[in-house]
Design goal:
alpha/beta; Rossmann fold; 19 helices
Length: 527
Amino acid sequence: MTNPIKDIEKSDAILIIGSNTTENHPVLSSYVKRAKTFKGTKLLVIDPRRVPIVRHADLWLRLKPGTDVACINGMMHVILDERLYDEEYVRSRTTGFDMLKKVMERYTPEYVEGITGIPKEQLVEAARIYGKAGAASILYAMGITQHTTGTDNVKSLANLAMLCGNVGIEGGGVNPLRGQNNVQGACDMGALPNVYTGYQKVTDDSVRAHMERAWGVDKLPKDAGLPVTDMMQKALEGEVKALYVIGENPMVSDPDLTHAKKCLENLDFLIVQDIFMTETAQMADVVLPSASFAEKDGTFTNTERKVQRVRKALHPPGEAKEDGEIIRELSERMGYPMKYDNAESIMREISEVTPSYCGINYDRLEREEIHWPCTGTDHPGTPCLHMDRFTCGLGVFHAIEYAPPAEVPDEEYPLYLTTGRVLYQFHTRSMTMKSDGLNVLAPECFVEISVQDAEQYQINEGDAIKVVSRRGEIEARAKISNQAFTGTVFIPFHYADAAANTLTHAALDPVSRIPEYKVCAVKIERA
């Protein structure tokens, strides 16, 4: 997030797009509801479903799945046409405006209505609410990123925020809501194929030399590694022989699970390190039992870039060990000793090799929580990014054209499928399925379908229905709901026995390599 969570309550307008905020981020959603209730903040929601946060919205734009770029471009067209943008901010702090303005000319409300299904009057109203706000915050989640155009979606939101001067101000910003508790921290620590810690590129000679000195090694690789989605395909092709999976369950969470299973089965060697025997662990040659978050010391970095201490409350059961300890022991047996006395010594190394963390240490974290970048031990941290200037100097507008999803409905598969989460289960249920109470509240998979589609297909509430895509089929119970969009069905991806990702396809964003979980074509029938 460019802004801290508390800034949400300072916003004059909040735009939520691609986020079922109350179910996926229930704590953060309370800030949105307080801003709306006590400050009178205007709330815009853009989503194909009537997600629960819509109850609090001043305006809900219901768009066809996968048409986010056209919608955002349409809002910018109106803002430009009515001169609602921040001319001084654009002139002094950005570049690429002329090209953006030229491309936006054809995204008239009428043109955008034809693509998205959003009535032109509603699009104009949304643009005016956002454009006239003194400070407007954008909140988005995986409904924006999990598309073949996910990178374009994010860049379009950055365009909109910069156009109205909403980056680098309190109550503004472009704020991604992370899907798990330490996703931000994992990325910060280099759990990506093309960077070291702090997003330092592996292709940068000076960065690589610095890391070689810090680790006492020669000739670190000069090339980026493989994204996880490419690893799976390379496994199928025989180029990747072994896979080490830590805290992930691709046999439920990967797209096109039939394909994912073939990829894993083609490996010579599969290691899984996890706290429970997941569906993926059941396929492994070796399972390494690891400790849960409450059984180890360390830090988490949350969605607002805040670094916080995590303290050990329990000893790991049985032969389970902390993830770091397992990795250190493996490394030593493979010929490279990792000499860390404890989690604090690892944090010391992090601050030495990571410019954005160089002012963060355990002494400070005992007293305070710190937002990176923190560039010295006397630096207070940076809750709000880009206050005076962008990291790269000028903010760059990207003039982006709308492109349709990789797969859209046709005569054979006439419905959109979109996937997501529910409040009472989490990710692949490796943890929440152990809770009897949660299983009472959300016991099984369902297919959310609109009243109109239920009538057309002669489906009643609770009927067993079959959902079929070009990749596979599942059966689940019908849930007739006014949250659903006519022509679109929604399935939560948590349930392995009716895995939604049996249906989704593995088309990838060309830049981020994220799969398009949020859009594919299906057909339904009574089971």
